[in-house]
Amino acid sequence: MKILIKNANVVSHSTKGIKNLVVENERITEISDKEIEGNFNLVMDAKLKTIIPGLIDIHVHLRDPGFEERENLETGLRAALNGGVTSVGVMPNTEPCIDNPYLVDYLSLKSEKLNMAKLFSIAAVTKKREGKELVDMVKISNRGVIAFSDDGDPVEDPLIMLKALEIAKKLKKPIINHCEVKELSKLGYMREGFYSHYYDIPGVPDITESIMVARDIEMARYAQSHVHIAHLSTKSSVDLVRQAKIKNIPVTCEVTHNHLLFTDKSISDYSPNKKVNPPLPTNDDHLALIEGIKDETIDIIVSDHAPYTKEEKSVDFAKAPYGISGLETLLSSLILISKNYDVDFSKLIEKVTYVPARIFDLGLIGDVKEGYLADLVLLDPEKEWLVEEKSLVSKGKNTPFLGSLLPGKVEMVMVRGVIKILGGRFTWN
Ligand SMILES: [Zn+2]
Fold this sequence. Notes:
Layout: E1 2-11, E2 16-24, E3 27-32, E4 42-45, E5 50-53, E6 55-60, H1 73-82, E7 85-90, H2 101-114, E8 118-123, H3 137-141, E9 147-149, H4 158-171, E10 175-177, H5 182-185, E11 190-191, H6 194-198, E12 203-204, H7 207-223, E13 227-229, H8 235-246, E14 251-256, H9 257-261, H10 283-294, E15 300-302, H11 310-313, H12 330-341, H13 345-350, H14 354-359, E16 376-386, E17 405-415, E18 418-422, E19 425-426
Parallel strand pairs: 1-4, 1-5, 6-7, 7-8, 8-9, 9-10, 10-13, 11-12, 13-14, 14-15
Antiparallel strand pairs: 1-2, 2-3, 5-16, 16-17, 17-18, 18-19
Helix pairs in contact: 7-8, 8-10
């Protein structure tokens, strides 16, 4: 199969501007400013449209095994493609949890058979994510996991964290920590501040997060082992990471697109779809997160896709579970963030393509470059789409974007040179 994509506006780390590209078998084989002659099985004219590398969303909960009423591998990986995400990093907080090599194999084999978006497994740090006993990190690492994390919960015990970091260093894999001091977070349901008082919802102080961010930076310094901090949400955390990077401490971090577009003020309607952990930021925290994106303190953007059933989210704000379904709104959000906060769109794209591929050592993906795998998305940045339950492929309809018109329609998605979505529709049915 040989495909020519003509006149595309390419936004990527290595290639920028109007180009013609050839995809042959599974790779990008030619990129040129000039017209490309030859015989092609398919020619696509991408005039006025944008070509980006397929998104790499490294923080995703697919709920399989154990919570398939919320999502399963098929609906989750399909939702990924629908959102222009061609690679996902899946978190291990399933039931049973991904704490042994056999469950890593289960995810790999099942996702390969589905042949939709690519799945990269993240294994638990401790058995059953109980924080007590380390998993067999060496054995699990050999099965191809990209990182270790007890996400959903922090690794609380510093000695366990230290031992995990020492092993992870030899394996050259990061530990992703969900930074939360549970004794403090149980005080409330949204970020403490003016609006938690105004809306009369108990607040969670920002030190809930930053105390553990500070600890983990010290852990990374002492062990000289890579800590990746999940879903950063406060100014204080951003400041700590900025200082750590100046000192060359091996720390990286992420923020979710929801935390870049919503704040505590948005909770005026008490919608459980705005209940997320960490909580939506205050205005000051939000400004610091945007600044952290601009000055490269924040390395990558993720969805923290956390689907729940309608029943689970159809309760009071206080009783609702934490989480937002996010795979399908990530890409459109980047367009909005770029417009609303004057952030270069190509910088945002790098934070969901090139940078995660480098941080997690994912091979030749995340860039538009000759020789790279042809994981590509054709996007119409001007076209809008309505976020409604029926337009979301994920089982999780729990998103604060419901009812919103978002910019950026995914028109074509290609994984390893095979077209999965064309004209906005899945190609296999
Ligand atoms: Zn988390």
